[in-house]
Structure formats: structure tokens, C-alpha cells
Specification:
heterodimer, A: alpha/beta, Coagulation Factor XIII, Chain A, domain 1, 2 domains, 6-stranded mixed β-sheet, about 25% helix, about 35% strand, B: about 290 residues, about 70% helix, about 0% strand
Chain lengths: ~425, ~290
């Protein structure tokens, strides 16, 4: 969807630089961290005497010695030089574990990873930054931690400072930096590493929007012009689209998709049970206390679609099922649409669509046009409210996210949501 | 799929070989050692008034204390050397060894956050620590030398001799042995935190098993049976020879010193072995 960036895929036919071969990573549950010598001796002594282990919680099987958890369960794929891979998946899918293995922070339980070239990992911005040191000293320190020699940092220091936009403060201790300046400087170091392979965990979402845009541009050029290989983990599909030319989707420690970015994102959104569902069941969900509970939503179902993905000319049609605990006049519905940063972008209201009687259940179908929205994934907070005589609003029920959908907007230009915002107003007309 | 493994820069496998440490890798990261040293120095004294002067006050105070307690009150012999110098000398040497040990002992637990985020050869950390400890040691050596000059000018018996040339070897040995013990402790503490409490206490006891506040000759005259035992303490010959080289008291012992070197080699080898085994997965247990 980004013709400006992803048209060329220069990596075809390049040599393989990373080969991941049936890698598994197992964590032991429960027993981790319980390491005091006394505890282990007690357990051992109890076993020797054939008695019950005093450190096992009564009736709990959770603390059994053999309880295992596979964070990665047989992952295999390979990466060619110059590729930018987007690693996506829900929480706990194993993305970060895989990056940790690749960056050698911890070792796999099974399998083998073969790497050609120098790897540097950014699992976080500003690892090892010391608050007492000045910006410049921290650039050297961070560079060294990430594997650069002093001479290499010397060569790049001017570029790093320029990129960070912190020149004025570069000889001030970083403890006096604003958090924005801090991450800008930290990211700048990483962006100027001389390694062949870069592993990044959600680190591009730093600083203000202009800087984020700059970071992504920098990484795109690093991959395209310098032939570096990037593996990027993110929950932000927009960044994945902008940066990556291949997506790998993980779920429960397994690769479920490996290929085209758009397709991968689609599969991720469809598979991620918590998010993009057609049928959203609200019964039994916790509600906020300030809601009156006069009317409760039971479910929200998207109609005529098998996945929550909408193009320009499609309207979202959905059925809302609800039940009424108290009589309500002028019942209304409000759809508060949040963008990927969890910020309200737009709201649509259907006021006074019915009155309801205590004890009854209702089912209504609504239609919503989301075409002014820019491309992206949105989460909706649907709120049922009572519209008072004087236009006052009394909220009855709300569930977040009540609906997650993806909107695909065709614009003539590459719409940069981070810069332009999430709403695309009607095109202006030149009248004179 | 058969791949020629030589082509790959890095191959990550579940289990490493028995002695899988990459010294070249550590050498490659030498700039990191320098940066860590700078960081430690800057951060330790940036907001203190006296700064590195604290290194001076510590040995001067404790040596004065020893002079009063062991020299004046307990009247332990110091082989004819001025008491203050005797204690200052032993203290300086022991101080270096014990700070090497105690500060490398927290390598894993103290750096867990950093180690969890980025890879570099983990041995870089204890090596940095040991080199950093040299800073305070050299300042203390300076104090010692100045005191020696003062005492010598006043005509007290101070006899530095040619075995001074072996001083660098002794210092290196203390660093290696301190680090060896330290990284063993740090490896074990990733699982059993108890040990880290034991370190401070253990070092305290160890000091009394080492001729720091007494000369070997004193043991010889009071409990001759213990002499051999004390000599077998691997730090004892180093402290003894260190003091002989600088002050000329007692005698230089080569035999036990060589044994002590043997112990150093074994401890260091074992330490690096356990350390490199633990470093691969300690993030999962720490």
C-alpha cells in the first residue's frame, strides 16, 4: 500500500544471511526465581525421605517440576541480505523471544540459528545510557555496547548528533534531557550502527511524529541503499507497512504466515482473537462503575463480511444486541473510533434511535460510513447513552474495544497518517 | 540441507562446547571495556566533594585502626617493621584482592538489566571491574610509597628489594584469582541468592586466615601447626611476598607461591567455564 517505498524489492537472489532452523525455546513455569539454597535443600531432603515437598503449594499442580511452556515451538525461516522483515503477532506469540535468541541474549532450547554478518540488537532504546554522562559520552558508551569501535563512532559522531537534533545539549548530562531528547539521541546511535543485521523491537515509535517519520525513512534507506537486513517487531501495522517488505506472523510460538506484508497483516488481524473479530460478545465483561447499566450491550456482529476489513466504498453494517434493565427514553449510540495509538480520532453518533422497556431484549442494525478515515487499524468504543431533554448525555454502557476493524483508503498520494492525521476530509476544490 | 558452517559468522546452538569462550570476541570489545571504565569513574564521583580522595581515606583510617587495635592493644609483632606501614601494606594488597572478588561476584545480578537487552561478551564486565579496582589500588599504593619514604627518612627500617620486580606478577595474580572466585560466585548466585550474602562475611573471615594483620613468623612462634595451613591459603603467599618486596620483612616464599599460582589457574579456568555456561541462559532464571 506504499507504492513510494515498497515498489522495489532488491533482496531477491541475494545471499541468505539468517537461517533459523527449527528453533524451540522452552521456559519452566513456577519454579523460576524460587532459588534459595534453603528451599532447594528442603525439597531435596524431603525427596530423600520420600515425604511431600514442603515447598510445593498444596493442591497446586502449577508448581510441578515438569510444567513447561514453549515460547517458541519449532520456528524456521531464512532471511536474505537487504530484506526488511516485519515480525508480527499478538502478545506472547514469541516475537520478542525470537529477537532475544537472535541477539544472543539467551540461548535456544533446541534448533540452530546461523547468521552471516554482524548483528546488533535494539530491544529497547538507550540501553546502557548513564544519566550522569553527557550526551556525547553516552553516544560513545552506547555505541560500544552495541558493538562499535571507538574509531567507528568517531567517524559517525557528527551524523549522529545532527540526526538526533540535540546538538545544543550534547555536552550536558543526559539526566537533564527531556524524555523526548533522550530517545532521539538513543535512536540516532542505533540508526548509525555499522552492523549488517539490525534487530529492533518496537523502537521506531519514539519522539514526536516528525521524528518517528524521520526514523522510519532512515531505516528504509539503511535497508535499501546500504543493503542492511532489518528484522522489526511491532504492533503498529502502519510502521510495518512503511518499513517492511516481508511479514512473518507468529502465533503461540509458531510461524503461521511468511510472505507479503499486506496479506500477513490481514492474517494477523483475523487471527488475533482479542482484536479483529466479526462477532464480539460482551456478556460478562467488566464495565466501568460510572456507567448506569440501564441498558447493556450483549454483542456486536459485523454483517455481510468474513473479516473486519473495509475499503472506501464499503460501509460497516453491524447488528447490536442489547437488553434493557430499566426504561430508557431516547436511547442513542455513539461510536468512538480510536487509532492505533489509542487516541480518539473520530466519533459517529446515532441519537434517539429507540426507547426501550425494562426486561426486553432488542436487536438493531446500524450502518456506518468510515470512508473519511485514513488507512489503518481502528478500535471502537461503542457507548449506549440516554439523551436527556436538554441534550445532556447519560452513558449507560460501553465496551472497549467493542469492535476492531481495518480500513483501507485509496488516496492519490501516500497518506502519512502520523503526519497528516487519521481523517481525510473531502478534497479541496480550486474555485478560481 | 547441508551448509558449510565455515561460511557463517555466528552459529547459535542450544548447548555450547565445554570450553567455548571467544577471546577474540572479548578483544574486539576492548573499547567497551574502556567506555565502562570511564562510566564507572565518572558516575562514582560526579557528585562527591572529595572524589577519588576517598580511596586515600579508607586505607589510612583502617591501617590506623589496625595499628591501635592489633599493634598497640594486642601487641602482635610486625617483624620489626613500623606497625603502620606493615598494616598499610597488607591492607593495600588484601584490599585489591577482596574488591576484585566482591565486585565481580555481582556480575550477573548487578547487570541483569543490561545483559537482558543486548549481547556483548559477558566476561567484559568482570574484566572491567578488575581493571577498575586497579584505580583505587594504585592510589593506595601511592599512599603506601609516600608513607614508606616518610618512615625511611625518619630512619625506620624499610627495605624494598629486587623482588619488587615481581610486584606486577603478584598484582596480576590477585586480579585473576579474585576474578576467578568472583565469577564462580556470580554464576551460582543466578540461582541461589544466598551466596551473595555469604561473600561479605566470607571475605572477612578469609582475611583473618591470611597474614594481613599478623606476620607468618608470629604464627610460627605461637601455633606452628597452623603455619602450613595458612601457607596453603592461596592469598597468603602473595600478601607475604608483597610485603617482603616492599618492606623487606619476613622472607620470600617461592614454594607456596607457585602452589598459589596453580590454585589461581584452576580457579580461573573453572570460573570461566561455569561463567560461560551460565551466561547463555541466565536471563531465564535470574
Amino acid at each position: 500500500m506504499n507504492p513510494g517505498i515498497n515498489l522495489r524489492d532488491p533482496s531477491k537472489g541475494n545471499e541468505v544471511v539468517i537461517e533459523i532452523d527449527n528453533v524451540k525455546k522452552q521456559y519452566r513455569l513456577g519454579t523460576i526465581g524460587g532459588g534459595t539454597l534453603k528451599g532447594d535443600l528442603q525439597s531435596w531432603w524431603a525427596r530423600v525421605r520420600g515425604k511431600e515437598d514442603p515447598n510445593t503449594k498444596i493442591g497446586s499442580k502449577v508448581y510441578a517440576k515438569n510444567e513447561k511452556f514453549m515460547a517458541l515451538n519449532g520456528v524456521s525461516f531464512s532471511v536474505r541480505k537487504g530484506e526488511t522483515i516485519g515480525l508480527i503477532g499478538g502478545n506472547g506469540a514469541g516475537k520478542s523471544t525470537l529477537l532475544k535468541l537472535l541477539s544472543r541474549v539467551t540461548a535456544p532450547t533446541e534448533g540452530e540459528i546461523r547468521i552471516r554478518g554482524k548483528v546488533s540488537s535494539m530491544l529497547e532504546v538507550g540501553t546502557g545510557f548513564h544519566p550522569e554522562l553527557t550526551g556525547r559520552e553516552n553516544v560513545y558508551l552506547n555505541g560500544a555496547i552495541l558493538g562499535m569501535k571507538r574509531a567507528e563512532v568517531d567517524e559517525r559522531i557528527e551524523d549522529i548528533i545532527d540526526f538526533s537534533e540535540c546538538r545544543q545539549f550534547i555536552d550536558t548530562p543526559v539526566k537533564r534531557y527531556s524524555s523526548g531528547m533522550f530517545v532521539k539521541l538513543a535512536f540516532s546511535v542505533a540508526a548509525h550502527l555499522n552492523s549488517d543485521i539490525m534487530l529492533m523491537d518496537e523502537v521506531l515509535a519514539v519522539g514526536d511524529m516528525a521524528f518517528q517519520r524521520k526514523c522510519i525513512d532512515k531505516m528504509v534507506s539503511v535497508a535499501r541503499d546500504e543493503g542492511k537486513t532489518i528484522i522489526y517487531v511491532s504492533h503498529n501495522m502502519q510502521t510495518i507497512r512503511q518499513l517492511c517488505n516481508r511479514a512473518i506472523v507468529l502465533r503461540k510460538g509458531e510461524v503461521i504466515f511468511n510472505g507479503d506484508v499486506e496479506e500477513g497483516i490481514g492474517i494477523y488481524l483475523r487471527n488475533d482473537e482479542v482484536t479483529a473479530k466479526i462477532f464480539n460478545d460482551f456478556s460478562g465483561l467488566h464495565r466501568y462503575n460510572f456507567l448506569t447499566d440501564k441498558v447493556l450491550m450483549d454483542s456486536l456482529e459485523v454483517l455481510d463480511k468474513d473479516m473486519c476489513r473495509f475499503t472506501d466504498d464499503e460501509k460497516i453494517r453491524f447488528r447490536l444486541n442489547m437488553h434493557c434493565n430499566e426504561d430508557v427514553e431516547r436511547l442513542s449510540l455513539r461510536f468512538m473510533i480510536h487509532n492505533s495509538d489509542q487516541v480518539v480520532t473520530a466519533t459517529s453518533v446515532c441519537s434517539d434511535f429507540m426507547s426501550c422497556k425494562k426486561g426486553e431484549s432488542y436487536s438493531r442494525v446500524f450502518e456506518l460510513d468510515v470512508s473519511p478515515l485514513a488507512s489503518g487499524v481502528y478500535k471502537v468504543l461503542p457507548v449506549l447513552f440516554e439523551l436527556g431533554e436538554l441534550g445532556e448525555v447519560i452513558d449507560c454502557d460501553g465496551v472497549y474495544p467493542g469492535l476492531v476493524f481495518e480500513h483501507e483508503k485509496t488516496t492519490r498520494l501516500d497518506w502519512k497518517s502520523k503526519l497528516y492525521g487519521d481523517t481525510t476530509l473531502e478534497d479541496m476544490v480550486c474555485i478560481e | 540441507m547441508k551448509q558449510n558452517t565455515d561460511e557463517w559468522t555466528t552459529v547459535i546452538r542450544p548447548k555450547a562446547g565445554w570450553f567455548d569462550i571467544d577471546l577474540k570476541d572479548i578483544w574486539h570489545y576492548r573499547d567497551l571495556i574502556v567506555m565502562f571504565l570511564k562510566r564507572n569513574f565518572n558516575s562514582a564521583y560526579k557528585q562527591t566533594i572529595l572524589g577519588p580522595l576517598w580511596f586515600l581515606i579508607n586505607p589510612l583510617l583502617s591501617s590506623s585502626m589496625y595499628t591501635i587495635v592489633f599493634g598497640q592493644i594486642a601487641k602482635i609483632s610486625t617483624d620489626g617493621v613500623p606497625q603502620f606501614l606493615f598494616y598499610l601494606c597488607g591492607n593495600t594488597a588484601w584490599g585489591y584482592f577482596s574488591s576484585c572478588l566482591s565486585s565481580t561476584a555481582s556480575t550477573f545480578t548487578g547487570n541483569a538489566y543490561l545483559f537482558g537487552k543486548v549481547y556483548f561478551p559477558r566476561l567484559v564486565s568482570p574484566i572491567t571491574t578488575v581493571i577498575y579496582a586497579l584505580l583505587s589500588f594504585s592510589i593506595q599504593m601511592l599512599v603506601l610509597v609516600v608513607s614508606m619514604v616518610i618512615f625511611a627518612v625518619r630512619g625506620e627500617p624499610v627495605h624494598p628489594n629486587w623482588s619488587l620486580l615481581l610486584l606486577p606478577v603478584m598484582i596480576a595474580q590477585m586480579a585473576l584469582m579474585g576474578m576467578g572466585f568472583g565469577i564462580i560466585v556470580s554464576s551460582v548466585t543466578t540461582k541461589y541468592r544466598d551466596l551473595s550474602i555469604l561473600v561479605g562475611f566470607g571475605l572477612h573471615l578469609w582475611m583473618y586466615g591470611t597474614p594481613v594483620v599478623y606476620p607468618i613468623s608470629q604464627v610460627q612462634s605461637i601455633a606452628p601447626g597452623l603455619v602450613k595451613l595458612i601457607w596453603l591459603n592461596p592469598v597468603a603467599p602473595i600478601i607475604n611476598n608483597f610485603r617482603y618486596a616492599l618492606l623487606g620483612c619476613g622472607s620470600f616464599n617461592t614454594y607456596y607461591w607457585l602452589i598459589s599460582w596453580g590454585v589461581t589457574a584452576v580457579v580461573l579456568f573453572l570460573g570461566v567455564l561455569i561463567f560461560s555456561k551460565v551466561e547463555r541462559t541466565f536471563m531465564d532464571t535470574v
